Amino acid sequence: MASSIRVRAVENNGVTSLKALVRHPMDSGFVKDSAGNVIPAHFIKVLTISHNGKNVFVANWGPAVSKDPFLECRFKGAKKGDELTISWIDNEGASDSTTATIA
Amino acid sequence: MLKAKVILVALGAALAVPQALAGASPEEDRKESVEYFKQMFPDVPFEEFVNGQYALNEDRRKQWESMQDFPPYEFAVAEGQELFETPFANGKTYASCFENGGIGIRQNYPYFDTEKNEVITLELAINRCREANGEEPLKWKKGAIASISAYMASTSQGKPINIKVPDDPEALAAYQDGKKFYYSRRGQLNFSCASCHVQNPGKWIRADFLSPALGQPANFPVHRAKWGELGTLHRRFAGCNNNVRAEPLPAQSEEYRNLEYFLTYMSNGLPVVGPATRP
Amino acid sequence: MIDQRRRGFLKGVLGAGVAGFALGSGIVPLRVEAATAPDASDWPQKAFRTPGVDETISELYGMEATESDQITMDLPTIAQNGAVVPVTVETALPNVTSIALLVAKNPNALAAYFDIPDGTLPFVSNRLKMAETTDVVAVVISDGKAYKATQNVKVTVGGCGG
Q1: Is B186 annotated as contributing to ligand binding?
Q2: Any transmembrane segments, and where (chain C) (predicted)?
Q3: Catalytic residue among B172, B240, B244, B249, which?
Q4: Cys-Cys link to B112, which of B102, B171, B221, C126 (CB 3.0-4.6 A)?
């Protein structure tokens, strides 16, 4: 099963720019299905990006973040070839993680 | 500022589009159509028409461009590739049903099958491939079929649309049938496809921005923010028919296939950009 | 509340699952490997369930935010679809440790907030859901103080979606 996380990280002049797209319904809990039942809230709560065991960015999300959430952030201290770890956990306790190499 | 212009579609007025329903060849029709839209939008380069409303509205274009780096359909295309490459129960794959193994061929669809005397769309070909190999057909408008179609379209990125209407009376009849559908008024609102997409592109209809007919099929299957997922061209046909309060036809019905045939022919020469995002 | 924010900050710097021991007045953190699944036990439920911008800022950061012209927001003037509105925020303010995005007219104002550790640029781009035409407020914690900027986004529901 493919990872739920797609990442592209590029380093230029000491700044790494990271873009990620995560597959997740991000249901808000406010929407009803066609039968009139509320679709329960199901969303990513925390997503972390770490480098050398240290978090370089933490996203704390609520259900107002769009479905299949996108994220872009920028940080220093990493270089081409370094490995990054991107992980998330949702309100149901499910999680996923992936690594990416900085280009 | 939101410009919510109510479209005044002159009731009963003849369309201002040069049209001789019988007599003009498809190529003559197409050239007239391209000329018409070029005059309507002189600042839009020809290839840009495939971007529809994004070629005409700066604010919307910016939003779209900011999403292009990581478009929301990425997962569906990856899924489509997986589905495309997974063999059927009998061991064969989709590649066996298509020329060039199904890679880089999207721009040739739909085509007219002179033996079966019908228009073959990509989605139809996908399901016929399944059935020929003992598999259940997929639902037509969304889900797996849209993902597979999106993957196949992605392998044709940039290739010019190349629909052929062979010198065959049945093929020409199918084309003309599609053209007639396009220009016929329908539904309680009494709009034809042309009412919005030929007479009024670049304008607002309530809170939607109308795109011109030229280039429309190039960006399918489409990920609509409204759907939150991919949908096929026939899903959109049905939706548009619904919106003028006309009874939508079944996906892949003969009428919709002929319509797709006509519409895609009109976009010959424009690059395949599907799948794409739209509101 | 103060504890929670500081814990959140420490977590942000040292990775999830950081262990620490109390020494005198503060917590001295031990450096540990970031756990594979992040720890969401500190996720501020109340802050994410508060209507209204000012109330939410107060709940999340425990202080009021003052207007700043050093926060740049990139948002569409008219969102083409309220389900997916791209929002980018960056700032020239110094020593930023947190950025929050609030959507005033959403049932709960807080959409997201981001921990900005040392060495990370005060920049973030996200896509948010907006229920209707609304102010979007970006809050930045710089040198321990809260600053904010506001921009309005018109959200329409397409009249001819099929």
Answers
A1: no
A2: none
A3: B240
A4: B171
